[in-house]
Design goal:
It is a single chain. Helix content is about 20%, strand content about 35%. The strands form two sheets. The chain has a six-stranded mixed β-sheet. Strands 1-9-8 form a three-stranded antiparallel β-sheet, with helices on one face. Helix 3 links the parallel strand 5 and strand 6. Helix 1 packs across helix 2. The protein is globular. It binds inosinic acid and magnesium ion (MG). Magnesium ion (MG) binds next to loops.
Length: about 180
Amino acid sequence: MSKEYAIGDVIISRSEIEKRAEEIGRRISEDFAGEEVTLIGILRGAVMWMSQILKSVDLDARVDFMAVSSYGAATKSSGIVKINKDLDDSIVGKNAIIVEDIVDSGVTLNYLKEYLLGMNPKSLRICSLLDKPSGRKIPMDLDYVGFEVGDVFIVGYGLDVNQRFRNLPYITSVTEK
Ligand code: IMP
Ligand code: MG
């Protein structure tokens, strides 16, 4: 039987997210003015945020995707991350921006950052819709952050629990009934 979930109140509304995405898209455009950038969306959670950011990026922009999974909760801090889908195009000598949904422990991003830096990009920055600093196990500097959230489990705007609620157009919390 599938689990039942209780969705909380709206924490961040669709219009707040869209406004923030526009601000960040404009900042990226200023920071990389005259240059080419590749936005690397991390599947599947970052899809909605990535598409929103892209609309405000006024540059020679490229899009690529990676899919990763981190091993179960018990080994999360071990930093073992599996790549399920790699980049399609090379980022050697290119400006790359990782676009994530949420940074919690930092384990996933730490792994991705090291992996992508190994490809010798010209630059590598990180853009995340959400930052959950209370969960951090590995210190992580984020270049572009949508919003900070507290110590709650988040769904919506791409984020899921057991693959559900990714389609909610706002950020909310979820608990198991
Ligand atoms: P980290 O490696 O602990 O930083 O976790 C990063 C990944 O875990 C994110 O990319 C999400 O897929 C997932 N995650 C962490 N916190 C949440 C949450 O509150 N809601 C949904 N997914 C989460
Ligand atoms: Mg994710």
